[in-house]
Amino acid sequence: MGRHPLRPDPRRTPRRIVLALLATAAVVPLVAGPASADPAPTAPRDRGPTAPIATAPDPTAPFAPGPTAPVVHPLATTTASQQAVERFWTPERMRSATPMDTLTSSRRITPEQVKKGVPAVVQYSQPNGGSAWTGGGAITRTAGRVFFTYQGRTASCSGDAITSTNKSVVITAGHCVKLDGAWHTNWTFVPGYNNGNAPYGTWAAAKTLSTPQWTASEDMNYDVGAAVVAPLNGQRLTDVVGGQGIAFNQARGQVMYAFGYPAASPYDGTKLIYCSGTVIDDFLISNDLGIGCNQTGGASGGPWFLNFSESAGTGVQNSVNSFKYNFLPNYMFGPYFGTDAQNLYNTAQSS
Questions:
Q1: Is residue 348 within 8 Å of 30, Cβ to Cβ?
Q2: Of 193, 209, 60, 217, the residue nearest 133 (C-alpha)
Q3: Range from 60-74, 89-103, 224-238, 241-255 carrying the lowest mean pLDDT
Q4: Backbone angles phi, psi at 112, to 5 degrees
Q5: Distance (Å) of CA 184 to CA 15, 44, 48, 168, 187
Q6: What is the enclosing helix (H) or strand (E) of 173?
Q7: What is the pLDDT of residues 150-191, one digit of tens each?
Q8: CATH architecture for the domain at 26-34+68-111+123-349
Q9: What per-residue confidence (pLDDT) applies to 190?
Q10: Is the whole model's pTM more than 0.85, yes or no?
Q11: Strand, helix or coil at 104?
Q12: 3-class DSSP state for residue 337?
């Protein structure tokens, strides 16, 4: 991140987005803390495979539909392998893990590579562009750092525990579970991470998942991943830390809060950092949401919330930190949570 994109290969032409139209917005309530009110439902920018083609389509609408089946990758499926992952991630290894996005920093988007369109100027105020979270609440337990091995190197991202049927789902970015055609190994989630300390334990992933578009072609519009973590000491994840709500097919342009554990300068990965403000639509080459935010590498996969309560530290998750344009360092972009993100969540919670 920083001045580098968080997406795996921004030189690629973005694929056309695949989001099917839902009749109503979907919101999953919180496991712990008060349930947030549903944002006002709208007709999202999704179009299903059976929907009629408009004669004058909205130029901001997403693109043609594609596959919708999430892809599941098994990891530490036995007790022995889960214990091995836990032993692997010592406090020293966690502290020395490289922020994932710095490992792909040579892949940059430049203005010359952006398709030209109608000139636009976006005026934006930045209520909070990247400060340490000191408000306490549920977010200090549900958000955490993600650690894994990528191409033989220890790396880190961020993630969030979500309410789910199996009480074991972590939502993160797609490139935090798979990149360059290979699934990451030694994948673990450390909720409430604090400078190498794991106050709520180290949770090894039994399986990781990503959207079909990310799995097939690493399409940045679908940079969403999930993990199903194994029980730890006979307990399941959200029984220990709680779980945030999650929402799909919501109205754009709302106030959101973005959290993560940035580990590249000027941050060091030891603290939970947040940004807040009204989100915009990416006006360059993706269909993502954008927020004023100066978080850096390692924040990828951190949650974005609607209806976030600063007093309770709870909200409904509606995106993840995904990428930054190197020429727009004060903006973070995250994928729109439509039907494919919802299918991913449903597959994960039933696994």
A1: no
A2: 193
A3: 60-74
A4: -65, -25
A5: 23, 33, 32, 19, 7
A6: none
A7: 989 999 999 999 999 999 999 999 999 999 999 999 999 999
A8: Beta Barrel (2.40)
A9: 97
A10: no
A11: helix
A12: coil
Would you say how long the chain is, in residues?
351
User: For residues 27 and 17, what is the distance between their CA atoms, to the nearest angstrom?
Assistant: 21
pLDDT grade, residue 104 (50/70/90)? low
Q: What is the DSSP letter of 44?
A: -
How are beta strands 153-162 and 98-99 bridged, if at all?
parallel
Closest by Cα among 126, 139, 144 to 332: 126
Beta pairing partners, 149: 154, 185
Query: Which has the minimum average pLDDT: 17-21, 151-155, 318-322?
Result: 17-21
Q: Render the burial of 294-311: b for 16+ CB within 10 Å, e for the rest.
A: bbbbbbbbbbbbbbbbee
Residues 251-269 have pLDDT tens digits of: 999 999 999 999 998 999 9
Give the residue, 137 or 113, on which the prediction is more confident: 137
How many CA atoms lie less than 13 Å away from 48 in the CB half-sphere? 9
Position 118 pLDDT exceeds 70 = no
**Cβ atoms < 10 Å from Cβ of 159:** 33
Structure-block tokens of residue 241: 């830390």
Tokens (6 digits) for 35: 């349930």
| Residue boundaries of the structural domains of the chain | 26-34+68-111+123-349
Do residues 319 and 124 make contact, with C-beta atoms less than 8 angstroms apart? no
192 with 51: CB under 8 angstroms? no
CB-based burial label for 12 (10 Å; 0-12, 13-18, 19+): middle
